[in-house]
Amino acid sequence: MFQIIYIFKKFNSPTFFVRLIVACTIATLFSCESFVDLELPDSQLNTQDVFNDIQTAEGAIGELYSKLRDESLLTGDINGIGVLLGLYSDELTNFNPSILDRQEFYLNSVLPTNSYIENWWQSSYNLIYSCNRAMEGLENSSGIPKEKRDQLIGEVKFLRSLLYYYLTRIYGEVPYTLSTDYEQNTSLLKTGKDDLLAFLTTDLLSAEELLPQTDLSGDRIYPTKAAAQVVLSRIYLERNDPEMAEVYTTKLIENPEYDINIPIETVFLKSSPSTIWQLKSSQSGNNTLEAMTYIFATVPPPNIALSEYLINSFDPKDLRLQEWVQKVGDSTNVFYYSYKYRHNEPGPDSQEYSIIFRLSEMYLIRAEARFALGKKESATEDLNIIRNRARLGNLNANELIKEQIAQEWYHEYFTEFGHRFISLKRLQLLDVILGLRKAGWNPEDKLLPLPESDLLINPNLEPQNIGY
Amino acid sequence: MKKNYKRLKWVVLIILAGLIFLLAKSASAATLITNHRKAPQQQITGTVNGVDNLPLPGVTVSIKGQTRGAITDFEGNYSITASIGDVLVFSFLGYKKQEIPVDDRIEIDIQLKEDINSLEAVEINAGYYNTTRRESTGNISRITAKTIEQQPVLNPLAAMQGRMPGVQITQTTGVPGSGFDIKIRGTNSLRAEGNAPLYIIDGVPYSSSRLTDTNLTGQITRQGESPIDLINPNDIQSIEVLKDADATSIYGSRGANGVVLITTKKGKPGKIKVNVNASTGIAQTANRIDLLNTQQYLEARREAYANDGISEYPSYAYDINGTWDQDRYTDWQKDLIGGTAETYNIRANVSGGTELTNFLISGGYLKQTTVFPGDYHYGKGSVHFNFGNRSENDKFMVNLSGTYSTDKNNQPAVDFTREALMLAPNAPAVYNEDGSLNWANSTWNNPFRNLESIYDSSSEGFVSNMVLDYELLEGLHIKSSFGYTRLDYDELSTTPSTTYDPAYGLTSASSYAFSNKAGNHSWIIEPQLTYDLIFNNQEFKFLGGATFQEDSSEKFVQIGYGFPSNDLITNIAAASDFSIINNDKSKYRYQAFFGRLNYTYDNRYIINLTGRRDGSSRFGPGKRFSDFGAIGLAWLFGNEKFLKDSFISFGKLRGSYGITGNDKIGDYQYLDSYTISSNTYNGISGLFPSRLYNPDFSWESNRKLELGMELAILKNRISVTSSFYRNRSSNQLVGIPLASTTGFSSIQANLDATVENRGWEFEFYSQNFQSKEFSWNTSFNISIPENKLLKFPGLEGSTYASQYIVGEPLDIRKAYQYEGIDSQSGVYTFTDFNGDGVISATDDRQSIIRFNTKYFGGITNHFDYNSFSLDFLFQFSKQKGNNAIYSMGYPIAISNQPVEILDRWQQPGNMASFQKYTSGGNAEAVASFSRFKRSNAASTDASYIRLKNISLSYGLKAKWLGGLTGSIFLQGQNLWTITKYFGLDPETQSLSGLPPLKIISGGIDVSF
């Protein structure tokens, strides 16, 4: 210690220290302007840099698929439209009334404060924001080869259109924005249905052009031209343009990459040739959220089961009843679940991915389009292809009515992304069918309410949908 | 602004160039002075006595006009060399300075007189400058080592409780390491994390943000330890809390929530002195709650089933269906939280120095074991040093200080308190006869399973500071401080498979453990110029300086699942699967220029101007710099002629107004960036937009107004200080709610919301009795705070709508309005505000519970009788709080209850405070109980008066001890609480956290 004191004494020459202080002061003064300007931390990247590099740009787009699979309205878990629109229509029965927001769907008494209504809206617009942000980034991108950049732009346009498509199916008129400016986006007006569908058509046509013919990963886990064509054909149908719907479904049906005639129990395997686009599971070995959601082993069912209407409407010979539905229970208490996806636990390798589009839909849409054009003959042919695959007999073309088309959607697409509800709505059969089956149904239920939270913040969203 | 900076830079450069020139001159002049010595010299000795003719040790004896000096020893003796014609100056704190010419004497004895104005002359640390109570224009509260040392506490904040007006400190739980919440003059920011004060240790800013992780600490130390908890109270010389604008504005953007200045101990010139202090004691939980005994409990359970119409008890009702012994009784509070902890505290320091050099080296260790079953402990050790040196010509000064602290906390991963209150009184025995845990055929969750899981943390902190100071001209100093701090945290929390019932057949493959490694280091450089000028009756003090600071933090939290053996669970690397929960690195840079101008006229009028220009990396370009400042005025009316010889011995009126800021918003919030996600898609790591991009947000500002009066009468025997303050925080940095169509629910921006804190603070001191043998004095402080949300545009549509109401305090809860029990059905009823026949959460929670404290404070009495001294502090708080109902289960499931529930509804017509019992079978009763918990009935008066501290000591000062002085002492903390609160403890207000501990400790303090 005395040594230290000694050192202090030694440094008693004052000029030494004063010079040190002065030097420090000068040095720091010179650096002050840039002093408080910091670089990014390791866990964050500058937005424009993200889109100047292939790897990170793909990461930004890949995140959208992960979110779509796990957190959006298309999620296969119990918060997605597969379950909730299934409860809302006549696909599923609710066995857990204590979750009030879910019960509201089942009873067709959804309130504007319903958390699912809010979450679907919020997560969709969050993804739309990410799409718009990515568009800005990709359009100004310099580090990515044109071909790759076009493909990513195609993916973004496709995803954005897909989200708007579901939003308008659920909420009716919704705001449409391509901007990331929050000041503008916080007070948007609703866009009319016709305008919105026209915007989506333009975007999807551009996506169709930009997207590749085949997904080079080989797993059909990235959207291709065909995926854009699926949404286009849906939208043409909504726009009362059956001719174009027929053109687009035919393009796909004639595409040799996709095959409808496969054994019914293999339709939902990850390598199925009828799959147009699917979402890969989060980790290798994982299977789908859908399987975890629908499959149950004990009675009474913990949450949901297939409705009796659905089970009873099947022809017992129907292979889809035999292969895609599973029974649980004893002789007095029988419950059914959707067994389309069969692997509800992880294994060494993933067996199933969550399929968003598969080829059957194209036959059903084309049947609807042809029916609308008065081509009953060819419409029936399309339906028969689906029926024959399930070992059902042909329909009579002369007696074809829209209820039969609806029935085919019901049997082919139960518990898949609300196809039942959306097809009944398009075929204007909601009141006829659900009016009889659901005590709480009334005609205004064809649209769900806009979320209360957003109406409070943005009065431009008024009026609320009729009936809420 | 850039332009301004350039200009400023040149101004500073010119000043510096001038200084260098002057320096060369003065340095040579300095040499001349040191060489100029008088002769002949002689040795002068003598004794200095104080009042009652007792020798005074520690008196500084110096020669006027020179810097040489000596210090009196324990007998009051001194020795110094001086020449004829020199004048000796005797000075000692609390005594009047005396000057005695040497003449030709070689022995000079002297008796010093007490200075009654000494109270006002005590130096107070105001951060960048020192002031005195007399001269201060601001509001600064202070406690010193003497007060800290008489409290057997682990944490410096605990020592401040009840002693400072305007400073509200509450303990979160009694578990060591769980920390304290501090609020200086209320809640200013709508963001919970935006309310911490700025801590400065020896001039170095010290982090207030926790590095612990709630994944690990959540169930035991809650938010975990705050870095300030690491400081050993034994190392502290004084703690000053700066409250008003005059005191805090010089801290600019960081001063909004007040500033806590901690000064560590320094050595004093004189003979080398050794001080050793050792104490040991015991601690127990301060409060308990009266619960049902077995007979009452079982009767209640039976009644519950009878009410539900269930006559055959279900198979899982083990307590009453005969599975468990119906006569067994365990007092779980005694078994789980009723243990006796031991406390140990030892500290030693060596200090001393010559007239030019002084030093202090100290070390200390504190330890507290547990009141839980099992062998847990908390230990804290520290090493502290301080060296000071000045040159012979008194021009140059250097001071170096450093403190290294470390603590180790070993606790169960889960606090036992909740289970101590919830377990059925007839639950089975904890151990089987063979000593293994008794799971009673899987009929219960044995509480001792928690002994298997551990929470272990070790943290280290190092704070060091060096100050160099050179006097260029008389009164003109150039100085700079250099500071460095480093904090390291290493935490582990384990949940081995053995915490589960063996019937589940789990192996170590199901065990998991969390680990957190976090660190923070920062440096700061603050060059400064000060200039003091006195002519005639005017005094100028000028200070100018700059700050450069960098602060880097990192955190790495991970979980490991599945271990080959539970013995390996403390080594996460042995886990078969990992997942990273948090891996964050962030950096913060801060830069400022500050200044102070103080002018005193005739010792009567003082004006104090302070200001700061701040730049922070937390804001976007163009928003980084902002100006803050304050004006403080004081009128020392006690020095006016017309009061000169009156009974008023000191009188001051003061006021201040100014702006401070708040930049506690987290780093990088203004950036347009993407964040790496934990998702991967097809093997590619995801990236998502971090936030809505807003580079335009800026500082929260806090305008503080203060008016104060300080008055002392009858030769300072009675003094009163009263202050009124009004602080308005506006430009609140919050997430402004946005429509979801923006992609997000909010954006980080300045909201035009205003929070007001206003209040009164009073301090009162009186010397009640003063005689040779006996003296008694009392000090009392009380604060009456008021908090109000003045403005919040768009509150209705925002996510804050259910939390705040304009015109109300921030700390409120919207609750159901309890209407009593329906005398027919026997269930609780509530007001149906919107009259729709349904009690709904959205529309019927209209009763507002205000949790803000009405007033709080403390009263201290100090007695001296010969060598005995006794000191006790009662702390009080008038407040509302959540009572036991808020966190208890419905009466009565398989869980014990407070005895209060015996007053229940039994049959139509009954009036009671609790509704009819249910076992859970009556859905209406269960639902109404859950509303009851969210109603105004779940809050009650939580006011309390607590004997916070009592300290008795006996001074050892006798001839036969030789040079030894010291004392033996007995201290107590939280010994007695007076409250009507329904619950476990009115301070922590929780049924799941350990209440504060009461501590009794005794020890000895020796110096030689």
State the helical fraction of chain A: 40-55%
Radius of gyration of chain A: 28 Å
Relative strand content of chain A: 5-15%
What's the pLDDT, averaged over the residues of chain A?
90
Main beta sheet of chain B: 22 strands, antiparallel, barrel
* Uncertain parts of chain B: 1-5, 18-39
| Radius of gyration of chain B, CA atoms, in whole angstroms | 32 Å
Task: Note the overall shape of chain B.
Answer: globular
The N- to C-terminal Cα distance of chain A equals 82 Å
Overall 3D form of chain A: globular
Helical residue percent band of chain B = 10-25%
Description:
The complex is a heterodimer of chains A (468) and B (1008). In chain A, 52% of the residues lie in helices and 6% in strands. Chain A is mainly α and 468 residues long. Chain A has a two-stranded antiparallel ribbon with strand order 2-4. Chain A is globular, with a radius of gyration of 28 Å. The termini of chain A are far apart. Chain B has 1008 residues and is mostly beta strands. At the A-B interface, helix 1, helix 2, helix 3, strand 1 and helix 5 of A face helix 1, strand 19, strand 22, strand 23 and strand 26 of B. Strand 1 of chain A pairs antiparallel with strand 30 (673-681) of chain B.
